[in-house]
Amino acid sequence: MGILHKLQVAFTIHVNLILLILPTISSSQEHMKTIGSHTSIKENKHKPSPKLQFEITLHGFLLWASMGFLMPIGILTIRMSKRQEFGRRLKIIFYAHAILQMLAVLLATAGAILSVKNFSNAFNNYHQRIGLALYGIIWLQVLVGFLRPQRGSKGRSVWILVHWLIGTAVSLLGVLNIYTGLQAYHDKTSRSIRLWTIIFTVQISSIVFFYLFQDKWVYIQKQGMTMCNEPPRISCQEIPADDKEKVLKAESC
């Protein structure tokens, strides 16, 4: 009887312990489920929907096509006008520059409208602040372009300086905003931007190289033309002895 009584007591203790532990386990499991649900809700909040992700991608493509492609190509085009003084070719270069710049402005405006319409613009990061300043400067450049004075007028030199300064600011801010946009895209979608950053860096480096090489190429061509057009020089040894005195007298005169 003593042994049976002890077994009953031990069994009762074990049952009571199990009954005490089960609510704790179930409550901890419910707590873990609650934490997991909150985490998934947060992840779903931060993860953009397919529609929003498409709009972000479209916004980035429009700004790249505007600031990263058309605007630099338009600058390279107008640099070619330095070789032309007048004529039909100069007009073609000018109109090509104007068309490329206007297309760049229109695409940038479309990207801005898409951003204002679909994105939360709190202007609490560098990408949005630079973008706001960039859109204002772009349209200022358009206004300055329409106020272009004629060649030979008094304000022509001042206009060229202002147009060049604003254009340089637009180019620098545009390139910088593309890099900050890629970083913002990575923060929003958690996708890798390494490949796009490398491609864009190679593209901009190539454009800068051609921009700097244009003036050097003109200089190289002029040097070759100068050397070809120079008359051949005659050394003193090739001049007859009787004519050396005449040459020396002519040089002294």
From TrEMBL:
Quote one Gene Ontology molecular function term: metal ion binding
Residues annotated as domain Cytochrome b561 = 18-221
The membrane-topology field of this record reads: Multi-pass membrane protein
Hey, what's the signal peptide range on this chain? Answer: none
An annotated GO cellular component: membrane
Cellular localisation: Membrane
| Transmembrane segment boundaries | 7-25, 61-80, 92-114, 126-146, 158-181, 193-213
Report the cofactors. heme b
The alphabetized UniProt keywords are:
Electron transport, Heme, Iron, Membrane, Metal-binding, Transmembrane, Transmembrane helix, Transport
Q: Give the protein name, as stated in the record.
A: Cytochrome b561 domain-containing protein
Question: Organism source for this protein?
Answer: Quillaja saponaria
